[in-house]
Amino acid sequence: MKEILSKAKNWLSDTFDTHTRQQTQHLIENDAKKLKDSFYKNLAFGTGGMRGIMGVGTNRINKYTLGKNTQGISSYLKKQFPNEQLQVAIAYDCRHNSKELAQIVANVFSANGIEVFLFSDLRPTPELSFAVKHLNCQCGIVLTASHNPPEYNGYKVYWKDGGQLVPPEDAEIINEIENLEYQHINFEAKKELIQFIDKEVDEAFIAASIKNGSFNASAEAKSALKIVFTSLHGTSITLIPEVLKRAGYTHVKVVEEQAEPNGDFPTVKSPNPEEPEALKMALDLAEKEQADIVIGTDPDGDRLGIAVRNQEGEMMVLNGNQAMVLMTDFLLKEHQQNQGFKGDEFIASTIVSTPMMQKLAAHYGVECKVGLTGFKWIAKMIKDFPEQEFIGGGEESFGFMVGDFVRDKDAVTSTLLICEIAAEAKNKNSTVYHQLLELYKTHGLYQEELVSLVKKGIEGAQEIQEMLKQLREETPTHFGGIAVKKVEDYQASEVIDIETGEKTSLDIPKSNVLIYHLEDGTQIAARPSGTEPKIKFYVSTNAALDKTENYATVKQELDHKIESVLSYFNF
Fold first, then answer.
1. Taking residues 1-15, what's their average pLDDT?
2. Which of 11, 72, 286, 437 could be bridged to 548 by S-S, CB 3.0 to 4.6 A?
């Protein structure tokens, strides 16, 4: 506690403004627990950039932690691009303080002689990724905490390819930031270097989204599709209704109670489309309107939840894996029919997502690249293999990317894509759900489940590390009575054969992830979240499905298996 108090007292110096000094003094005098959590570490970059609770302290999102990031990035940019006019694009979402923090970040970049393109109002994250390339910037920043609770904000960094920071730039930038002191931050804006952007970039992004997300559905099929859309109080309300309209979808009902951007997210417990309850208002409206499909997006508009009607005509929320295989199969089929495959195409997914993606790739004769969690790794694949054509890909956490014009998950274009699938299916007297069952019949029924345990604060972070440490020290040999065949330890970069004890190396960047492969094809993964105080457990199992009519029976058997496997952890 002595070291934490010393760090906190540094924030009482003249380097910090009066309000910050007052808040810090209040914590020192009145709230030892909060003081400890605010200063015990420096807020770190995770799988989705830097996210944290807003407030004073080194472990909080505030003008100084983000100013220090920006000062460090400014220095790094000058070293990496010494003979170029440096340009940065900045966007922000609907969260509290996002607009003010975006302006502070713009000020610091401009103070360092860097030209800034700052969106004049909130915009979805995928548009920022697009803007970086469209405006020939070397870097991009978006102020967002995605679907985290209202008290959070965040800072995502994009590089000149439009993808998020990856090695080696990430470590080099972090080193640059850590070598700075707070007094080194230059907050004195050069206003002539800050240019506000909006319509021109919007129009370019909308055109590119429609080009990549629309295919062969007729105007009649599109107008017949009944869509309910909710932005969950987030930024996608600025684009998705307009994009749907321009693409030809005329029957779109917006959940008006959730259309107003609001950082408190007043109508939902969590603004996360991964949580079925977040879509309740949209599902209720869908019943009233007899809609065919529901779309809900998270606060920064990069991930989407989808609900469609099942065999009984009831609305059901697709999980991220189901949405991903539906959209990927559609893209592959379209590519096969319209262009054919040259042998250099690939799709992409992540190590904790459904193995069904590899089945799809094999079926169409394309490659499936698999990386660590986070779309920055998919963007890196595109950058590392320019000789190959990226068709599409995603991850289980409700994100998908169509083509490479955006280098991050993109709920805007993915919304168009899933509506195209739904419109074509309805036009042929079918449904999205029936198409999913047909995929299961062809490739096997893959059933996945995610369990997330929230562990807040210092003690929670320690508990998560202890759980993973124990799993490594006491390697399970069975889950639910099914023998473990091999274990992939991404932190140790090795694969362990349980029967022989033989170890082989994993050629993938290190990450605190364990994946168990069972003898019947079941997979269990454990990892700490890179964006929230959670530890996550993923289970994937599969079985043959001979007839779509047997789906419910086979699914029930797989559900029982998942329940049995998860019983090992005693949740």
1. 92
2. 437
H/E segment holding residue 469: helix 457-473
Q: Are residues 464 and 433 in the same domain?
A: no
Q: Which residue segment(s) compose the domain that 496 sits in?
A: 446-569
Which residue type is seen at 497? D
Residues 503 and 545 in one domain: yes
- Please give the single-letter amino acid code of residue 448: E
Which pLDDT value is given to residue 46? 74
Q: Is the pLDDT of residue 254 over 90?
A: yes
Beta bridge partners of 300: none
Instruction: Tell me the mean pLDDT in the region 178-201.
Output: 97
Indicate whether 264 and 361 sit together in one domain.
Answer: yes
Q: How far is C-alpha 208 from the chain's CA centre? A: 21
| pLDDT tens-place string over residues 397-427 | 999 999 999 999 999 999 999 999 999 999 9
Nearest to 28 by CA among 4, 52, 60, 63: 4
Residue 47 has what pLDDT? 64
Structural contact between residues 292 and 309, judged by C-beta atoms closer than 8 angstroms = yes
* Phi, psi (rounded to 5 degrees) for 423: -65, -45
Beta strands, E only, 328-375 = 345-350, 367-371
Q: Are 519 and 482 in contact (CB under 8 A)?
A: yes
Is residue 35 domain-shared with residue 49, that is, in the same domain?
no
Same domain? 146 vs 261 = no
pLDDT band per the 50, 70, 90 thresholds, residue 530: confident
467 and 530 assigned to the same domain: yes
Phi, psi of 364 (to 5 degrees): -95, -5
Statement to judge: residues 170 and 47 lie in one domain: yes
The pLDDT of 123-152, averaged and rounded, is 96
176 and 109 fall within a common domain: yes
Which residues is 405 bridged to in the sheet?
A: none
CB 213 within 8 A of CB 71: no
Place of tokens 């975006």: 102
**Per-residue model confidence as pLDDT tens digits over 22-40:** 999 999 999 999 999 999 9
Catalytic amino acids?
146
- Among 141, 163, 197, where does a domain finish? 197
Cβ atoms of 57 and 28 within 8 Å: the answer is no
Can you give the pLDDT at residue 458?
82
Which letter does DSSP use for residue 292 in this model?
A: S
Tokens 């096997």, residue? Answer: 444
